[in-house]
Amino acid sequence: MKTQTSVLALVLCFVGSVVCFAKDPNLGTWKLNEANSRWSPRAPTNRTVVYESSHGDVKVTVDGTDAGGNPTHNEWSGKFDGKDYPVTGDSTSDTRAYKKIDDLDQSNCAKLNFCTLEFTGKKNGMVTMSGYIVVSPDGKSRTVTMSGSDPNGNQ
Question: Is 0.85 topped by the overall pTM?
Answer without folding.
Answer: no
